[in-house]
Write a structure and sequence with these properties.
By secondary structure, the protein is α+β, with helices and mostly antiparallel strands. It folds into three domains: about 1-105, Phosphorylase Kinase, domain 1 (2-Layer Sandwich), CATH 3.30.200.20; about 110-290, Transferase(Phosphotransferase), domain 1, CATH 1.10.510.10; about 295-430, Jelly Rolls (Sandwich). About 35% of the residues lie in helices and about 25% in strands. It is built from 14 helices and 21 strands. The protein has helices spanning about 65-80, 125-140, 175, 195, 205-220, 230-240, 245-250, 255-265, 275-290, 295-305, 315-325, 375-380, 400-405, 410-430; strands at about 1-5, 10-15, 15-20, 20-30, 35-40, 45-55, 90-95, 100-105, 110, 145, 155-160, 165, 170-175, 325-330, 335, 345-350, 355-360, 360-365, 370, 385-390, 395-400. A hairpin with a 4-residue loop joins strand 5 (about 35-40) and strand 6 (about 45-55). Helix 2 packs antiparallel against helix 5, helix 8 (about 255-265) packs antiparallel against helix 9 (about 275-290) and helix 10 crosses helix 11. The chain is globular, with a radius of gyration of 24 Å. The N and C termini lie far apart (about 60 Å).
């Protein structure tokens, strides 16, 4: 038995098994519960197990306590929803003072790892992911269920790039609350619709507004509204016009900016009324923006060919590294690598200037064609320096798992180059450091 969590609702002893399911490592925190990787010995499959403290005593108001109500809500909602873009519920129950939900295990990551100054996906792929979510919400709404907590961490992306919606812990029935004020706001402030903030009854347009905020964030690396205090954030959401996508990403179609303007309208009646309608507009744009194989191949190699780093590589080797990379846009002053942190990605500067710092001192300035992060990429060891964007920066972020798919000859060629780079940096580590960088 191991104690997990600090908040009272998340502070409980975790057994090695619940019901017939083996409990493994903790994967994260959900609404009023902790999520673990588990195993179903009968079906011989991995599962996700969500645990929370059971509290079956009635509250003073005569209903179940909030945490218990969340468990019952999620179990009831998820049991009704069977859709390829919604994480499936297999089992639920209460045992030894714990609620448990047994769900489909998704091998992948949530959208939290993208946007907000982090790695960004190609715009066409973002649109396809959001289309998957639109379809999931269209189905959920057809079953009378409003999610109320659409945000990046509640959207899983499988290793195959398929989106899966999860966590219906604060979902509500559209029919039961139609025409009524829903009372105190529930949700995640940065992604809540104006009517959700105001405690009004919610319909499909509220979830679609929240999904549009996720789309905006994935395309720009910024949240629609940002404020230091929640009350100030709420004021912005309710009163201010959201920024226009075309002014932040002029390289993207004007039609996509119009889709976001409609989806982020203050008035629910002016937004998309169904997920199917929003998905239709986004799918048409994604189809036009998605590069063909030939166009993608040519663009990838052309971009690499212009960088000095790739002078010694064949076109086939350039293509293999391009296919293992994602494009990352970083704002000036933002940290890319923390000194001493473990990061297994390799970063190649495409445009702009990055600086490497050791013990707070500036030791190297990197420009187009330079790379960093080679120590973690090759040895899976902590970096000996930190990396900061000195200007607006565009990087190729090479993914280790994708790089492993390259041919052995290509991998060996790249590792030789990385090793020479590491040796050069180690040799110069004792030399005088640059204390001032002038542009």
């Amino acid at each position: 038995m191991a104690s997990v969590g600090t908040a009272s609702q998340l502070d409980f002893d975790v057994p090695s098994r619940i019901a017939k399911y083996d409990i493994g490592e903790c994967l994260g925190k959900g609404t009023c519960g902790l999520v673990f990787r588990g195993f179903d010995p009968v079906m011989c499959r991995d599962v996700a197990i969500k645990l929370s403290l059971a509290d079956t005593e009635q509250s003073d108001a005569g209903g179940a306590p909030a945490a218990q109500r969340s468990f019952l809500t999620e179990a009831a909602a998820a049991s009704k929803l069977k859709h390829p873009h919604i994480v499936a519920l297999y089992d639920a129950g209460i045992e030894d003072g714990l609620n448990y939900l047994i769900m489909e295990y998704v091998s992948g990551s949530s959208l939290r790892r993208y946007g907000k100054g982090q790695q960004q996906l190609p715009p066409w792929q973002v649109l396809e992911i959001i289309c998957d979510c639109c379809e999931a919400l269209d189905y959920s709404h057809s079953q009378g269920i409003i999610h109320r907590d659409i945000k990046p961490s509640n959207i899983m992306l499988t290793e195959e790039g398929v989106a899966k919606l999860l966590d219906f812990g604060i979902a509500v029935s559209a029919a039961k609350q139609r025409g009524k004020r829903s009372g105190p706001s529930l949700g995640t402030p940065n992604y809540m619709s104006p009517e959700q903030i105001l405690g009004m009854s919610l319909g499909a347009p509220s979830d679609l507004y929240s999904l549009a905020t996720v789309l905006f964030e994935m395309l720009t690396g910024k949240q629609v509204f940002k404020a230091g205090k929640v009350k100030d954030l709420f004021r912005l959401v309710v009163r201010d016009k959201p920024p226009r996508l075309v002014e932040i990403r002029p390289d993207l179609p004007e039609a996509l900016s119009r889709v976001l303007e409609r989806a982020l309208s203050k008035d629910p009646d002016e937004r998309y009324q169904t997920g199917a309608a929003m998905a239709s507009d986004l799918a048409a744009l994604a189809h036009r923006m998605r590069p063909t194989e030939g166009e993608s191949r040519g663009a990838q190699v052309e971009g690499l060919r212009e960088l000095p780093f790739f002078d010694d590589f064949t076109e086939a080797e350039q293509l293999q590294i391009a296919q293992a990379s994602s494009v990352l846009h970083v704002r000036s002053g933002e940290t890319i690598l923390e000194e001493g942190a473990l990061d297994e990605h390799l970063y190649i500067v495409v445009e702009g200037i990055a600086t490497l710092r050791r013990a707070g001192r500036l030791c190297e300035a990197l420009t187009a064609g330079d790379c960093f992060g080679e120590m973690g990429f090759i040895n899976q060891s902590n970096t000996h320096y930190g990396a900061v964007a000195a200007t607006e920066l565009t990087l190729y972020q090479v993914q280790p798992a994708l790089f492993e798919r390259a041919s052995a000859h290509t991998q060996l060629h790249y590792y030789k180059v990385f090793s020479r780079l590491m040796a050069g940096r180690m040799a110069s580590s004792g030399e005088s450091q640059i204390d001032l960088l002038l542009y």
